[in-house]
Amino acid sequence: MASTSRSQAAADKRRLILDAAVRVFARQGFHACRVSDIADEAGVAYGLVYHYVSSKDEILDTVFLERWNVMLHVIAEVDARDAPVREKLRGVAAFIVDSYVHDPDVMKVIIVEVTRAANSFGLTHLGKIREAYKLIADIVAKGQADGELRTDVTPDFAALAFYGAIEQVRTGWIFDLLPQSPE
Amino acid sequence: MASTSRSQAAADKRRLILDAAVRVFARQGFHACRVSDIADEAGVAYGLVYHYVSSKDEILDTVFLERWNVMLHVIAEVDARDAPVREKLRGVAAFIVDSYVHDPDVMKVIIVEVTRAANSFGLTHLGKIREAYKLIADIVAKGQADGELRTDVTPDFAALAFYGAIEQVRTGWIFDLLPQSPE
Amino acid sequence: MASTSRSQAAADKRRLILDAAVRVFARQGFHACRVSDIADEAGVAYGLVYHYVSSKDEILDTVFLERWNVMLHVIAEVDARDAPVREKLRGVAAFIVDSYVHDPDVMKVIIVEVTRAANSFGLTHLGKIREAYKLIADIVAKGQADGELRTDVTPDFAALAFYGAIEQVRTGWIFDLLPQSPE
Amino acid sequence: MASTSRSQAAADKRRLILDAAVRVFARQGFHACRVSDIADEAGVAYGLVYHYVSSKDEILDTVFLERWNVMLHVIAEVDARDAPVREKLRGVAAFIVDSYVHDPDVMKVIIVEVTRAANSFGLTHLGKIREAYKLIADIVAKGQADGELRTDVTPDFAALAFYGAIEQVRTGWIFDLLPQSPE
DNA sequence: TATGAATGAGTTTTCATTCAT
DNA sequence: AATGAATGAAAACTCATTCAT
User: Fold this and answer.
1) C-alpha distance from C172 to closest chain D C-alpha (Å)
2) Which positions in chain D touch C32 (Cβ < 8 Å)?
3) Are residues D121 and D165 in the same domain?
4) Fewer C-beta neighbours within 10 Å, C or N terminus of chain B?
């Protein structure tokens, strides 16, 4: 119990640092910020950051993976539902849009620093990023097989378009225009 | 004449360096590459880079502005044509797609390092980037005024969507799927 | 207390670096020495210098201002004394001579790198340098008003001459010849 | 004859560059100016400077030695005159003051960059600088031997004081106050 | 755990000097 | 002689990471 609450406290402190890092990354960008900026934002001593994370890179990796894995999980869960394809896609879109609304900083960081960073973190996490495309493409493919969706577009392209729509949302902060036609 | 060919040679060498920089930026990313990488790629001595440009930043600024200004010019020129709106948008899209085909490295660098770099160069060139949106939005607005385009979407959003489609092109290298419905 | 001794330790380390810098500046000159020379002289790592000062220039600025402000203070204090003018001038001269004796490196650096550096640091600190002339000129002016000093020389020139004598002291390391006739 | 006028032209061009260098040194300081500044000031191409001088340092060496040797020569010549000591010293002082009046830039450069540069050029030319002191001290010594000057000050100190007075002149641009009492 | 001082490799930029034309 | 492009060796400064306390 003591051990539990102690490790809980540790986890909380780590969370504090990760969240602070997200705010700083969103505000200044990953490259432009220093580790000391993160410590300041978190209100902890410089060196303490390295008690909870092993490197600056690891912070971004962690932030990305945490959220991305949740998304992969949700998409898989949505796919498993017994519902029309359009309904499923709507569900996925809704989750992503909600993510923006709920925590725009995390989403900004993920997109700007990972998803779009073709040469650095985007490369590192290419596999994970593709997993999401793959899951969406699978949903589309099933919809096409069931005759619910047109087949004049490949599932892969449809997934890309879907993701493109999401990008637009962020790019323009136009959250309420999207949900109508994700195909 | 001598003077002309001399300054021509200087311009060529500068071009050589800028082009080499584009290749390196496209390959490694702006932050990950060093000025010496650019010099090596161009096959010139380190210091010569600084004979032709005043800083690493200036290289990216120049590369961006050169291409972006051409694009702004082309969009304006297309808009001035006596043609249906859809034809105009098709013209703009065609130019952009051609740019990708003709020089994918420059486009990759512009998008990855400037257009999407919300915290660094994207901020610096925000004005220029918005100019392009504005020009496209103007085309759309005229089309709506003429009854050629639906009015259930604002011109600004249409421009965003248009740009989003362009992004997709790059993201997926799907050059032949776009030109059908740019609106 | 802990906080006090900690910041004291920090101040001491900064002092260590500043003092090392003075020795290196005196030995090699400001321009000829590298920051790494200072670090070596202080026996600390390169980067630590930048933990305590923000630039090489700042070191010289600090060294100069610390000592010069002390001198201004002493001159003002001497002036406030209830004593004959010649006594006051003698007091000022004594302080300056003592400074040489006590810390010749600092004085050498101040004179060679600041006071005489007409194009660089001398320009930066021109105001401070003039303050000293002004204070001495004031003492002389009062002495003239009181009839204690001849009035065939302006106070400003007298101050200059006074300073010139000081320079001589340094230039020739003739410490024991000065105090007799500072006017 | 052709050869003579050719080498005369070469000497003239070299003179042009040296004079330009003096102006630039006086204005910006030796360290702060670049060789290209000198070339610009002289109105010649960058590389041409190196046709006439072998290094930036050599320019300052040359400028200093040219003038200093003239001064040494004049002092020796004055000393050789059959005149009272005070007259001789007056002659030396007059020459130096005239030098200031005639070419203040050269004097400023010599004093700021050589005479006072204890760690760089001042060190290089220490011998030459001392020669001047020695010559003046000799004059004073003779004057003392002849009973024309007081002997309560050593000749070396008198020479120093003499030079100090010169310094003052420059420092304060008070050209008309000096010539009365060089002892 | 917590602190922040200490480390030093890495990067940009400058500029004297050389060299091809 | 003249030009200015080419070279590359410094040197200042940054900052992620480590470490002593």
Assistant:
1) 7
2) 119-120
3) yes
4) N
Q: Is the distance between the Cβ of D47 and the closest atom of strand E smaller than 7 Å?
A: yes
Query: Of the residues A53, A68, A96, which one is the last residue of a structural domain?
Result: A53
A161·B168 Cβ contact <8 A? yes
Find the angle CA(B72)-CA(B78)-CA(B84) to the nearest 5 degrees.
140
Q: Is the pTM of this model over 0.85?
A: yes
Q: Per CA to C1' distance, which residue is closest to F6?
A: B48
Q: What is the mean pLDDT of chain A?
A: 86
**Per the domain annotation, does B38 fall within a domain?**
yes
Is residue A24 located within the same domain as residue A70? no
Expressed as residue numbers, the domain containing A95 is 55-178
Interfacial residues of B (vs A; Cβ cutoff 8 Å): 27-29, 31-32, 108, 112, 116-120, 153, 156-157, 160-161, 163-165, 167-168, 171-172, 174, 177
Q: Do B37 and B98 sit in the same domain of this protein?
A: no
Of A21-25, A123-127, C59-63, give the lowest mean pLDDT range: A123-127
A7 and A96 in a single domain? The answer is no
Question: Which residues numbered 117-176 in chain C sit less than 7 A from strand E, measured from CB?
Answer: none
Residue D74 lies in a domain: yes
Chains that touch B (3 or more CB pairs under 8 A): A
Return the higher-pLDDT residue of D147 and C48: C48
Taking an 8 Å cut-off on Cβ atoms, the answer to whether A172 and B160 are in contact is: yes
**Do residue A49 and residue A59 come from a single domain?**
no
* Domain CATH number, residue B90: 1.10.357.10
DSSP chain C: -HHHHHHHHHHHHHHHHHHHHHHHHHHH-TTT--HHHHHHHHTS-HHHHHHH-S-HHHHHHHHHHHHHHHHHHHHHHHHHSSS-HHHHHHHHHHHHHHHHHH-HHHHHHIIIIIIT-TTTHHHHTHHHHHHHHHHHHHHHHHHHHTTSS-SSS-HHHHHHHHHHHHHHHHHHT-TTSSTT---
Residue nearest to nucleotide F15 (CA to C1'): A34
Query: Where residue D168 falls among pLDDT bands split at 50, 70, 90?
Result: low
Contacts of C171 in chain D (CB under 8 A): 160, 163-164
C180 has pLDDT over 80: no
A37 CA vs F16 C1’ separation (Å)? 13
